[in-house]
Write a sequence for this structure.
């Protein structure tokens, strides 16, 4: 079972990564460009929904695959606990937002099956697409928007993690897409949608707050709409004796591969002290936030500001992925559309390096976490180091994948940083020409 899963992840990731590279490097057919925006959006959603449910039905009704991963190990038990009147953080441990078990419990109320949660995530992912395309149409030319949408259509991590694993990033993607789409227009809608990401799903999207805050026109109004729902919900849980900080502490105590700190330990044989690892992560993220805020403040053109905001958010996420000791490529699914947009943007400017790095990330993102579980056995960095020195084949493969993944993170981060810096002095012509 584990072997089959790993082979399928490698094969599917490789196929879709190659297809992504071809799409990015090719000119879109004139027939596709001739469609009106309404025609393109309608056809995109039809194809997107059909492809997602095709994967879903093939896996669970044709091949009779049983649901797995967090869907059955975490989401279901916590939802059942909530249905029994238990409270997260007080009566059972949870790494998710306070209302997340209740959302899943509501879904299980329709049908007590993990597929209920999975279908909900698929629907959220599908519904998020029109919002993401609306965001991009406000800051780049239509041909680039359509190429970005096609890249998202074939993104292997998004397809697998949502349609097969049922990860909750489909829900986060929808809430973030609404928040990004309505920023600068409907501040209250944007703020509430953003706050719901860490009220209903998980705390991680909080890292995008600086980028969104700098883009909003009515900052006080937006900030109140973000803070008020959060205070009300988290305050209610505190009032009943729940330790709302336990989720952050629990996640902070974990260490996984797929980041620079693990790679350092695997190469050197030594783990950095926990306090030093946390300090390095904080310094890196704060530096990224400060740099992007300065750039956003200096960007004047409205379309350039929106594009800078989107790229700033993606840059901060990549830095978190690179420097946080608990990192997982599935986190990219929260706003992978923005990374697709960056790749399409670079491709249309003739850039090959960023497109290659995007394809490399698409290839590695799916199998690398699975490889750590099997054939490896969740080895720590020093344990992987010992296996590597002993000549263990699986350790060598993991070291190569880790190095390439970190290289893709670093390369894409530097590429995005270079692009957002250019936005300061560029007019609308650069990103909206045509």
């Amino acid at each position: 079972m584990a072997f089959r899963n790993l082979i399928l992840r490698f094969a599917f990731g490789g196929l879709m990564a190659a297809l992504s590279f071809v799409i990015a490097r090719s000119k879109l057919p004139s027939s596709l460009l001739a469609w009106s925006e309404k025609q393109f959006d309608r056809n995109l959603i039809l194809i997107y929904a059909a492809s997602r449910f095709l994967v879903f039905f093939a896996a669970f009704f044709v091949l009779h695959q049983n649901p797995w991963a967090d869907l059955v190990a975490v989401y279901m038990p916590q939802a059942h606990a909530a249905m029994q009147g238990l409270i997260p953080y007080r009566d059972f441990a949870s790494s998710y937002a306070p209302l997340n078990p209740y959302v899943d419990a509501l879904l299980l109320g329709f049908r007590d099956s993990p597929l209920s949660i999975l279908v909900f995530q698929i629907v959220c992912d599908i519904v998020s697409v029109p919002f993401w395309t609306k965001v991009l149409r406000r800051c780049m030319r239509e041909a680039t928007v359509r190429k970005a949408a096609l890249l998202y259509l074939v993104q292997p991590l998004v397809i697998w993690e949502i349609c097969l694993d049922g990860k909750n990033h489909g829900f986060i993607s929808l809430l973030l897409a609404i928040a990004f789409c309505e920023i600068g227009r409907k501040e209250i809608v944007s703020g509430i949608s953003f706050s719901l990401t860490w009220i209903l799903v998980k705390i991680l999207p909080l890292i995008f707050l600086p980028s969104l805050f700098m883009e909003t026109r009515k900052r006080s109004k937006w900030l109140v709409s973000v803070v008020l729902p959060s205070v009300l919900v988290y305050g209610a849980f505190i009032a009943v004796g729940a330790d709302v900080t336990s989720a952050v502490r629990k996640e902070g105590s974990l260490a996984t591969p797929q980041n620079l700190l693990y790679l350092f330990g695997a190469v050197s044989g030594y783990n950095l002290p926990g306090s030093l690892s946390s300090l390095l992560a904080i310094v890196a993220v704060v530096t990224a936030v400060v740099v992007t805020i300065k750039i956003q403040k200096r960007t004047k053109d409205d379309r350039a500001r929106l594009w800078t905001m989107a790229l700033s958010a993606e840059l901060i996420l990549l830095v978190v992925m690179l420097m946080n000791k608990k990192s997982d490529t599935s986190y990219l699914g929260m706003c992978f559309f923005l990374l697709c947009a960056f790749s399409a943007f670079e491709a249309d400017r003739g850039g090959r390096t960023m497109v290659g790095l995007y394809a490399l990330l698409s290839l590695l993102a799916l199998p690398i976490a699975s490889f750590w579980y099997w054939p490896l056995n969740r080895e720590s960095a020093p344990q992987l180091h010992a296996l590597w020195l002993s000549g263990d084949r699986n350790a060598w493969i993991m070291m190569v994948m880790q190095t390439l993944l970190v290289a893709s993170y670093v390369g894409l981060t530097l590429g995005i940083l270079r692009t957002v810096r250019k936005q300061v002095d560029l007019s609308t012509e650069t990103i909206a020409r045509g």
